[in-house]
Every structure is written in structure tokens, then in C-alpha cells.
Design a protein that fits this description.
11 strands, 117 residues, 0% helix
């Protein structure tokens, strides 16, 4: 099993920045990729950014150039630096981890990000 604990959400004005953190514990060696999804009220959960064990990254078009995902392997932590935030970035952000060995996806509890206009 893998446990994920997120932190760093909050309320920020449009144009501001936030950094989300996701600390992983458990069967860390089995993780192939980690990332962030978000879900706004009335909308489906969508991928925001992901990073593989080889440090490859990909982003949703809506956040490309504004958000940066990174990982600290020594701390088993993934970060999402969010700059130039917009009201449409308001959502609950969920950290996830994928393990091909375990054949499973793991999710954090979610952290609220609210961007005021």
C-alpha cells in the first residue's frame, strides 16, 4: 500500500501563487508515476500534471507554462508550484500515485485551492 498526504492548499487572489506538497509513504519503490488531479464543483476530475520515475513530465493544456511539477526522491515528496493562478483553477486538488507492480492507483484526501477574482 501507498499512503499520500497533501498540504499547501488555501485561498489566494488571482495572479498569486501556491505550492502543493504530497508526501508518500509505504511501498514507495513500487511507484512509477505521481501527479495531481483536480475536481471543480459540477465537473469531472481532470489531470493537472504528472511526473514519472524517470522525471518525465506532462501537463494539462490549461496549466502549461503556469504550473510546475517536481519531485524530491529523498523526501518521497512531489510538489506542484502554481503561478499566475486564475479563478478557474479553483478546485479540490488530489495527489495520486500509480504502481504498475501493484496494479493500483492511490489517492490523497484532497486539498482545496480557491482563487478569488
Amino acid at each position: 500500500q501507498v499512503q499520500l498526504v497533501e498540504s499547501g492548499g488555501g485561498l489566494v487572489q488571482a495572479g498569486g501563487s501556491l505550492r502543493l506538497s504530497c508526501a508518500a509513504s509505504g511501498i514507495i519503490f513500487s511507484i512509477n508515476a505521481m501527479g495531481w488531479y483536480r475536481q471543480a464543483p459540477g465537473k469531472q476530475r481532470e489531470l493537472v500534471a504528472r511526473i514519472t520515475s524517470g522525471a518525465g513530465t506532462n501537463y494539462a493544456d490549461s496549466v502549461q507554462g503556469r504550473f510546475t511539477i517536481s519531485r524530491d526522491n529523498a523526501k518521497n515528496t512531489v510538489y506542484l508550484q502554481m503561478n499566475s493562478l486564475k479563478p478557474e483553477d479553483t478546485a479540490v486538488y488530489y495527489c495520486y500515485a500509480h504502481s504498475s507492480i501493484m496494479g493500483a492507483d492511490y489517492w490523497g484526501q484532497g486539498t482545496q485551492v480557491t482563487v478569488s477574482s
